[in-house]
Amino acid sequence: MSIQRRTRIVLPALAVFALSACQPQQPPAPAVPTTELLAVDTPPPGYPEELACDNVGGQVVLAMTVGTDGRPSAVEVLHGSGVAALDKAALEGVRQWRFKPATRGGQPQSSKLQVPVNFRPPQVRPQSCYVLDEQRRRSGG
């Protein structure tokens, strides 16, 4: 192949490449970050006063699904405490919790998690326990 023939083939190819390099490039779309589930309002569940006064405690492990609205959509007892009132208090308390939902591609996603709820009797007996004791004594209980 002659140099002249090679030049005719190479020059047009270089011209196309050079022109394409001059075209304005579209900036890449910004990456939308993935975010994790974030607790917003998760106060400890209420401790049944009678159980706290009677020095009864325990741990309840709950299985929870947090919906795309940040609210628990399903909550169930995975491992109970052995005390029905503590299990019920844990369920009721956790159902009130609020979260910022996890996201993928900017879209909210539901999340599943396990939540241990610990009920520890107070080290110092609350004054209200003495009133409860008196009510029990009067009612014969």
Architecture overview:
It is a single chain. The protein has 141 residues and is of the alpha+beta class. Helix content is 35%, strand content 28%. The strands form three sheets. The chain has a three-stranded antiparallel β-sheet with strand order 3-2-7, covered by helices on one side. It has a two-stranded antiparallel sheet with strand order 1-4. A hairpin with a 2-residue loop joins strand 5 and strand 6. The chain is elongated, with a radius of gyration of 32 Å. Residues 13-17 have low confidence and may be disordered.
Structural class: alpha+beta
**Sheet with most strands: strand arrangement:** 3-2-7
Order of helices and strands: HEHEEHEEEEH
Radius of gyration, in angstroms, nearest whole number: 32 Å
Oligomeric state as shown: single chain
Overall shape: it is elongated
In DSSP terms (H or I, runs of 4 or more residues), the helix count works out at 4
Termini distance?
111 Å
Number of strands: 7
Mean pLDDT: 86
Q: Point out poorly predicted stretches.
A: 13-17
